[in-house]
Amino acid sequence: MFEKVLVANRGEIAVRGVRAAFELGCKTVSIFPYEDRNADHRIKASESYQIGEQGHPVKAYLDISEIIRVAKESGADAVYPGYGFLSENPDLASACAANGITFVGPSADVLELAGNKVRALEQARKAGVPTLKSTPPSTDPAELIAGAEEIGFPVFIKAVAGGGGRGMRRVDDPARFSDELGAAMREAQGAFGDPTVFVEQAVAAPRHIEVQILADHEGNVVHLFERDCSIQRRHQKVVEIAPAPHISDELRAALTTDVVKFAKAINYTCAGTVEFLVETSGPRAGSHVFIEMNPRIQVEHTVTEEITDVDLVQAQLRIAAGETLEEIGIRQDELHIRGAALQCRITTEDPANSFRPDTGVIQAYRSASGAGIRLDGGTTGTGVEISPHFDSLLVKLTARGRNLHDAVVRAKRALAEFRVRGIATNISFLRAVLEDPDFEQGVVTTSFIDERPHLLTGRVPADRGTKLARFLAGVTVNQPNGPAPTTLEPAAKLPARLPAGEIPDGARQRLLALGPAGFARSLREQQAVGVTDTTFRDAHQSLLATRVRTRDLVAVAPWQARLLPGLFSVECWGGATYDVALRFLGEDPWERLAKLRAAMPNQNLQMLLRGRNTVGYTPYPTEVTRAFVSEAAETGVDIFRIFDALNDVEQMRPAIDAVVNETAAVAEVALCYTANLLDPAERTYTLDHYLRLAERIVAAGAHILAIKDMAGLLRPAAATRLVTALRERFDLPVHLHTHDTTGGQLATLMAAIDAGVDAVDAANSAMSSTTSQPPMSALLMALDGTGRAPDIDPQAVLDLEPYWEAVRRLYQPFESGLPAPTGRVYSHEIPGGQLSNLRQQAIALGLGDKFEAIEAMYAAADKILGRPTKVTPSSKVVGDLALHLVAVGADPEEFAADPRGFDIPDSVIGFLNGELGEPAGGWPEPFRTRALEGRRKPPRITEVAAEDLALLEKPGVERQQTLNRLLFPGPTRDFQQGRDEFGDVSVLPTVPYLYGMEPGHEYHVPLEKGVTLLLGLEAIGAPDKWAMRTVMTLLNGQLRRIRVRDESLESEVVSAERADPGNRGHVAAPFAGAVTVTVAEGDEVAAGDQVATIEAMKMEAAINAPITGVVKRVVLGGTTQLDGGDLVTVIE
Which residue range or ranges hold the Lipoyl-binding domain (predicted)? Predict the structure, then answer.
């Protein structure tokens, strides 16, 4: 046996060679280029030596002189080539022989013959083995094209000096032959250093079956049965099975006989594989043809080892050292098939990206194990960087069982156990292949994958832990909301124990029993005033910029349901909460509604609906309104509070009709209150105005009348007069909503209650007053002992105050309410929610110290625009104009007199164009005419495509997603992008979600029932030149390294220009690799035309034009190394 063996390869097969040599008592030598210095094979060998030039890692493994140099320097007496690289190169065998070194493999002459596919075909014909038509090998495209035409299509282009699918193309269309030929030759040159190819006849619907042989130097040859390698993609084997299932004994005998006959005919020695295609249909079904001889060990040799108990790599070394098969103990009559084995190649090829090899750092690696599972890997583990230079193989999984069924079951189990994070893998694809019912039944040909495109879109690993850890790492490093004001989880402040027993019946049970009309009638008839809790929506919208997360609402909801069953309703959805959830919280508002519905089955859930706009800001077709109302009612809304910013009943009518005619919910329709109806000088917003409006609302079919006092302008006496008049003239119950901006609105509520109002809005005291609603505890105490006191336990309300106090403290950075009440609202009339948001806008514009000027300008802008009722979105119009005029230092009187000399915000132009309707007092003239000169546009109704209207007819998630996209396309796109990147962040605790993680803390993240993720922070590294920090996180107790950009720092490295994913004309690199552009600026291209090539992982692929157009810009000059997503060209 040899003293020292040099393994002239890398990765899995190099490790395999080192292990086999060690087991035989040999010392081992590995080689590696600079880029492969961290590889396992370097560490496992007895000695290791760097070869080649830095920057050319693949070339180093193909450098024969370097291999011989290291062999001589290290004293190796044998070179083991493995598979790939130089394993079939006769020059390496000759160089070894010339230097007195044993080459573990056939002689140079046999390699020349067998490795050269054309000469191998000639020998097969001479030996009487059936073959296919083919051309002589050549590098002359014209000669090869002519040969292909003579054979007839379809054909294969094959590299003479290679294997593993590289340098190979199947061509069915003669028009594509020239392009595919060029690509195959370039790929062969890059992979094997030889561009020579030949053309071969292709067989339709074949099975790919190969036979393993061993031969010694005395002419003895044995076969080790066959393997089925039909599951292929782009001629690269994906799954291999031994023995081949569902073949006859006669076919097995014919295959193995031909293999031994061929091997003896060429005086073959060592290990090798003979490959055949077996026809599966037509008159030649069951017949086989020789396609090639692989004079080396193959990737899939493990399955043969598992069913024969023969160590093929050890056998190679022993034969090369001069032992005979008899001496080794391998005899044909003693070789038997034992069970079945199946191999899956786990790679970094991404099925979702056309199997492009992914690159990056493995953030987590957990492999399979257990009975019947064998793993053969190279450099694979947590923290390993996968470069674009080498093969994409991570690990070979071989499963063994008593039969194929057992082997498949074990393979499925093992694949399910694997966890690889940080890079894409093909594991989901492999699982889909094994799950396909045709697979185990043996209905497989080489087109198995091509005929089943659904395999490419199988279940992708959720990778929830890594995604969530990456999100928290980003927050931890960048602190977007500053340091945490508290680390207390609000849930700790909930009452100690949830009341036992069934959830008591509440107002919702009355609604379900009586129906909406009967429910409204019962509200009118009852003496006790109904109370709506706004803490779940309008209160935190007004005080905390709508930032309270679903998690913190759902946490208290079970207590709300059990402790406060006497509430009239809980306002918890709609309005700004909808788009803020998508825009800022990474949450789907429909998921919030469904969770609240489940948690509070006895409460009427109430939402705010902007008429036909639903929760959007512009009018939509009636079909959208109907679909939204229907979906909201089915998901959980019981009461729809419907309003229009300008009190236009026609704008509200589609929503009213949808609620009344198509759901079992309550239509509560609001008149928006502004000004002061007590003022004798008021000419527009008088009592008669509101009564006429109420008359139209009642005629439209409302179940309940609402008064929506958004700025808190309704004085107690005005409330008495308005409520009295409404109740005298109409039979509908009246519901009052106001804001406590002035601090005196409890008096307004009491005046309204004394006047007979049927329901009022209030918030938990911890979330009340100023721009929010009056405090519920104060309201209950004010009603205590009166005939109108509601059936609500005051102590239960008090018991929930600590929770909401903790919530408010947790969201302190978003606190945008007033520090104290203000009476100035009676002058500027800014709505409560807008007043807090306007402060934040002013600060963002650098106008925070001029807020009194903004208030005064708001009042001026209100007059300029004709004093519209100020509710979203009309209030935004007034606010935009006020901010703009303050920012540019304009005089409001000068602006009102001649607006043509000023820039005007788009929202103001839209308002003046009539997009929101007409103000009650009419248009301000001549201001409107002057402002619209050259700017007039017809009012817009957002158009909806026919295919989207069709989707709106399908209840459930699909309709919800369609509504999100139609109403808020930008925020929905950002939400989906965030969910794709980070997963469902709504499951994260709020403290780390907002402020990041602290060392020493363990954060429990419930993913689903019975599944909890444990996250923590270990350390944060210093920034590198790219302004990236390494964050060491703990995920279920295991270290997980995550790279995060520190947004406070500038990168010292000029980054490549990135393609815009939303621009179809931006052509991006699909993955990391060397990109060469093949078009020039000004070229016309059609969709699908090649515009560039990319080379990585020893493979070349085309980058094609996504659209038809003209190349406007070429970003690259010459061949350039890019990352996936970098911009290559721009097509318009």
Answer: 1055-1132
